Amino acid sequence: MDTNRCFHCGLAVPFNEEIVFRDHSFCCRGCQTIFEIFSDNGLDAYYDLERSPGARPLSDAYQFDFLANEQIVAKLLSFDEANTQIVCLNIPHIHCSSCIWILENLRKLNPGITSSQVNFHEKSVRITYNATQLTLKQVVELLCNIGYEPYISLEQYGKTTKNTDHSQTYKLGVAFFCFGNIMLLSFPEYFELQEFWLDHYKGFFRLLIFLLALPSFLYSASGYYTAAWKSLRTKRLNIEIPIALGIIVMFLRSVVDMWFDHGPGFFDSLTGLIFFMLLGKTFQAKTYRFLSFERDYKSYFPVAVTRLGEGREQNIPIHDIEPGDRLLIRNQELIPADGILMTPTADVDYSFVTGESVPVRKQSGDKLFAGGRLQGAPIEMDALQSVSQSYLTQLWSNAVFAKRGARPIESITNAVSQYFTPVLLAVAFAGLGYWSFIDRHTAFNVFTAVLIVACPCALALTAPFTLGNVLRLYGRAKLYLKDANVIERMAKIDTLVFDKTGTITSASQSQISYQGSALSGSKLTALKNAVRASNHPLSRLLYQHLPATETLSVDTFEETPGQGLEANILGHRIRVGSAPFVGAFDQLTATQTKVFVSIDDVVLGVFTFHSQYRDGLQPLLAGLAQHYTIKVLSGDNDGERQTLEKLLPPQTEMVFDQKPDQKLAFIKQLQDNGHRIMMIGDGLNDAGALAQSDVGIAISENVNVFSPACDGILDASAFAQMNDFMRLSKKAMRTIRWSFALSLLYNIVGLSFALSGQLLPLVAAIIMPLSTVTIIGFVTLLSNFDARRLQITRQKPKHDKYHGLGETASVILNYKSAV
Amino acid sequence: MSVMYLLISISIAVAIGFFIAFVRAVRSGQYEDDYTPSVRMLFDDELKKPEPTTKNPNKQP
Lengths: 819, 61
Prior knowledge:
The structure holds two protein chains of two kinds. By secondary structure, chain A is an alpha+beta fold.
């Protein structure tokens, strides 16, 4: 057994802090307690299914205090009657079979819970409980206590239970049912044996085939008729027009053939075509259900907040906040509206807004902006605005958010069909004209045969299968796109705009450098033990940074908020903190966060905190710069300009001090100059720019929880592969073009049959599936081959050590005025 | 020869039966989550394990 890893959560056990309990080692009391809960309740199997499946519990469970408000609870419950309550909770930590197992055995931990069912893809659990035995708050606390902190946001609040649309599944099912049965019943006709009994039952078979074709023709293919009708009305020649035309003509021709006993008709090809095309649609419509691409500030804001008034605390829904309300914000809670700080100091972490995860120190009377997360002791603030009128949330009133989704889909398929449809009609009428001089009957046959055989089935399937496959390949490499159309837009990008903080810098790593006289031996030991006692974010970082030493008892310890700490250890007086506190002289550079150290009133040196640029940033940008214009857009001041100039390719434009709406305007201006922009950002302040750009990619350390509305979510661990992703999108478009050529070749072969007046149902029944299968095979193999060459392969699943929202916020880099 | 009508009718009836089963499967939510049930069905074996431990605490070898 690996002794350095926690048995429960799998994280490395810090030196000297190992807790051994019942032969297993744990990193903290929290993990040990969860293990104890599970093993006392006979749920040891949790650790047998997967190794170290758990998460560290959060220390502050009172953030769910608002669940005491009955109004709020009523809105969260999806079913509420007497003794049965059902609630559906989103739990980001769900990641393995152990999670499913433990969450479905919740009833063993508390008899008040009747049953619970996990939906793994949605990372949610549906809990049925008895409200007379326990409250929703207790249910949530139970989940928190076992490390499965649910994620309750304003977004879910008041949302009606969604009804997933199954019509596509039904259509596919109906199409397959009709196709399969017609194929079987058509077999006798294929062989055209002049046997008595075949001839005898021909009418019966054909009647059955006709009846079976009706649901497929009327119901399954209905989507194509409406799409074709819509595009006719907007006078755009979509691929749906020749498809709908082909289907209808094929049906009419088959009815005529059958009625006059010319032949068996093309019902087999017709239903096959409909089935394959619906299959393509389904294949393309791969969605990542655990991700949301439409998040706005509502997804991150809390459901309720504590209002102080008339001498008591009151939980109110945040929409009820009015200017002038006195609010109480606790550790790790989000500031819901702009306001004035009434408590002496507060550390506010704006990482959701800016990507900058260093808390900002605010003094009494300072303005607090909505979206910040409080670190440390509770504060009181006076609201200045209501929630939707705040500085950040106002961004969502911009028109760009309203017109999202209404963007016309420019797809390569539609571009080709602009030419395809007129040519097809020209050929069909030419055939009709030519044959009508020779033979009326053949002329009708030729006309319909052209439309049937040229029905662009293979053409219509090319893009869905290629893009659907590439979408999956991206997903495996941890780039999750909203839909397949994003890939086409990606291939046309010429300019990449990066946000700085949190995007090209890492939000989870920091770099600490030390200047001064060397720290060693007892001094180092004393310093490490001094910061160990402190809960200040910078102390935590410093503690992790310093090499491991033995643990000593601290004689005296005193922390002055906003100043620093003083401790007596081994007879040394240690002061850690700001320059005036320690007594050091600081040539102040406002852009850097520094922590000074003195021992026995001798200033030893200073620790400087840098934001760390992501691994592989320089080669990535150098590679991207060969094909794209690169720009950097930052909400911060230009303190890091020189560092960036060294990292970025020469002539990279850098724009600093950009407010959220300025970022949006910057993108818009580039677009007006004819550029196609991909914006890569992370925080809510990038939301406008992401929505405005042609492709907006949100980069996220944890894709399950945090990302603003965008076209795609990129896991931060796959950041270095950006260039490969861009290249694959171009390769995908090349694959589609080649495949178009191939399918046109099939059309020409088919047309030559049709124009000579010899299109037998059997030929059609062979050409159609053959072309479909070769096209699907061709595009799938080629796009897989391209992905392998670019080394876009399945990433090893990173053990997702996510512990709820509070944890991301506790990773700190540097003090900087963020908003 | 009319046995043909019978056979075809039966085969169509069977096919329709499967189709109804498909519609019911969609309605009952089988297509909402296609992963969790595949994991869940394996748990039955694991569930039995803790039971003897509660009855016999000295089971540990």
